[in-house]
Write a structure and sequence with these properties.
The protein has three helices and twelve strands. It has helices at 41-82, 128-137, 148-156, and strands at residues 90-94, 104-108, 112-114, 117-120, 141-142, 164-169, 177-178, 203-207, 214-218, 225-226, 228-231, 233-234. The longest helix has 42 residues, at 41-82. The termini are far apart. The structure holds beta-D-glucopyranose and calcium ion. Calcium ion is lined by residues 195-198, 201, 216-218.
Amino acid sequence: MASEIMYAEVKFKNESNSPGTDSNSAAAPEVKPTPHLSKPAGPTLLFTSLMALFLLLAISFLVAFIFYFQKYSQLLEENNALRGLNYTELSCTKDHSLKKDKFWSCCPKDWKPFSSHCYFIPTASANWSESEEKCFSMGAHLMVVHSKEEQDFITKILNVHDAYFIGLSDPGHRQWRWVDQTPYNGIATFWHPGEPNNDKEQCVIVNHPRSSWGWNDSPCSVKQKSVCQRKKIYV
Ligand code: BGC
Ligand code: CA
């Protein structure tokens, strides 16, 4: 008679499991093999590419903007230089110190050249505002004095018996302003001793009352001669 064999514990082996794996762990999640790339490539790569493209576009836009802004400024400057030059003859001298495509520095006929500017003395006397308007209509402004040399150059061609408006005035509270926005304190001043002396005299003349040329604050409404100044024209 066959004897009955009782098994208290039965173990089943999964063929794919490594030896020694407990059959109870069959319910545990399967361990996946490690992929070669540690991060998911798709979305990150797309994001990086988009960012790079955006950066490239932004840089191109900035470069184009700077390029066209410079061109625009140059055109504006040339346009200003030509303002008031209709039907005017130019007097030019060859200038070797100029930028690549410019060879001549010019002033309108009858204007006096000095350094990088041209100067003109209108015949008629006028108050300060009218004098500035007259200069403006010729593409110029009342003279801004930048140095002793410039002041000496211009006073040599002025009449000691006349007074001449320059482009310096005070809109109030002794705040001296140059017509071209040059900072007042940035350059030299040539006041006569004791001047400026009257806050009701809000415009400046250059005159020669005694032994030398210098500046005096003077009423804006009085008619005086004047000195116009403009930048040289380079062609
Ligand atoms: C002028 C003043 C000046 C003064 C100098 C006056 O005739 O109007 O601007 O300061 O002379 O003595
Ligand atoms: Ca004065």
